[in-house]
Amino acid sequence: MKIIDEYFMEYPCFGVDRMTYYLRLDKGFKVNKKRIRRLCHLMGIHTIYSKRKTTINQKGRHIYPYILRNMKIERPNQVWQTDI
Q1: Could you tell me which of 41, 3, 50, 26 has the C-alpha nearest to residue 16?
Q2: More confident call, 61 vs 17
Q3: Are 40 and 51 in contact (CB under 8 A)?
């Protein structure tokens, strides 16, 4: 675990696959991905990468109102889109 932590501090963008290859080829340990994933989870190590930003509002973008908010739906096919 000490070797994993040291390597992660040097290369925080490397994930489980790269960590496994490093331990196998460079250090000579017989480990698999499942073991490395479990140890990283145990140590609280997460790969640093850019994540999706889906909830950030864009400037000047129109926000459409929800027109069915106060409508009571009582039967099947009561609401369907006519303007496409």
Answers
A1: 41
A2: 17
A3: no
